[in-house]
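Hi all, a correction to my earlier message: I attached the wrong file for citrate synthase (unknown stereospecificity). Here's the right sequence:
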Amino acid sequence: MDYIKQKLIEVALPKAEMVHKLVKEHGNTVLQEITMQQVLTGMKGIVGLLTCTSKLDPQEGIRFRGYSIPELKQKLPKIKEDGEPLPEGIFYLMLTGELPTNKDVKHISEQWATRAQVIPSHVFDVIEALPKDAHPMIQFNTAILAMSTESQFRKAYLIGMDKKDYWDPTYEGVMDLISRLPIIAAYIYRRVFHKGDHIPQDPSLDWAGNLAHMMGHSSEEVKRLMRLYMLIHSDHEGGNVSAHATHLVGSALSNPYYSFSAGMNGLAGPLHGMANQDVMHWLNKMKREIGSEDPTEAQIKAYAEETIANGRVIPGYGHAVLRKTDPRFQVQLDFANKYIPDAPYIKLVNKVYNVVPDVLLNTGKVKNPWPNVDAVSGSLLTSFGIAEYPIYTVLFGVSRSLGVLTSLIWDRLYGLPIERPKSEPLQWFIDRVPKQ
Ligand code: CMX
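and the right structure:
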């Protein structure tokens, strides 16, 4: 058995026993009170999920297994000391709860490079059957579903297996799926934007470096950017739409492909992962309407106010949990300041940052007026030559696989059952209003 799997069993067994014990011996413990508002406005703040891979603090932002992004930039293995951490490392950390060694990261890189070589040809046939102008997320998700013919979980389930072993073929499916996503993403990118002129993977490269290479952007800076991008988008605890959808569908014992596909359908919504391309749409439309490549802050403020007045959202701003500037926004700005401080799009992002929070505060209803991860990611990619913004949510999805699929393995290690919250009709809520 692979040593990472062996390690996982050792780490997970006592935790699974603890979950079992908590349910059996403390099942009636009241955890929190829930208000009408929470239920009717998206269940915000209701603890309804067990997730170990990362935790989001409203003020501080995300921590992966206890480590903040600046700490991970120090502690995770890199190819070169002045470069960015390898996403293989955060996968190992989220999976096992321990910081990886260089050897662990190399082992995962090699595993993924080998597993990536066997994508069945029908997956590419299915992509080719779609019109070229079908949104890249449609193509991405269709390919993910087409790959489910390879599901090891489904095969093992049909043969018959003990519940406590569900995690094992899930792990195998997750490793296969993650390994193949960069090839799928790059294939779609080259198909849609580069006349189908595909670039084979280079098995000597790391997972994110390979993605940049196969997309045709193989400078060292873009490889570094891709490693950073894959690191910071990988997880955002369990309740966000892509994580929760993956978990929910997985709770029906759907295989990793079905489960991840559900998460990706959620990521494709404009209030979630599609916001990264909507930001570029918003910025470019603003420049066109103002008639300037370099609008003033006063012009940007007026445009933002018009967006609000028209009943639309300003993409890249606000968050359901965060109440401060997203550290994932800051770390991308730091990257831009290191490599491309004078890039016009980065200057524009900074100008927008100077005016939009006040515009949102003035609405009197936005709970978080600060930028989220999507406010800068597209401008950064564009500044490095990846300017075809419909691909951005696909890149987000490749990264998000690391967190949500690790959680799927843990769901099965913990032995979590099918998810089934209760729903009620409107009268039930009306009946609960205290009588005067
Ligand atoms: N622009 C305009 N209005 C906004 C806003 C924004 N950026 N953010 C919140 N609001 C509005 C909400 O639409 C809501 O309006 P109504 O009361 O009229 O319905 C009100 O402010 C209160 O919302 P909230 O409690 O502050 O925010 P929610 O938790 O409901 O929504 C989010 C969070 C992210 C969907 C929202 O801030 C938004 O739509 N942002 C723009 C889209 C975006 O950037 N999404 C990406 C988030 C990160 C990610 O998942 O990738």
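Sorry for the mix-up. Strands lie at 54-57, 61-64, 67-68.
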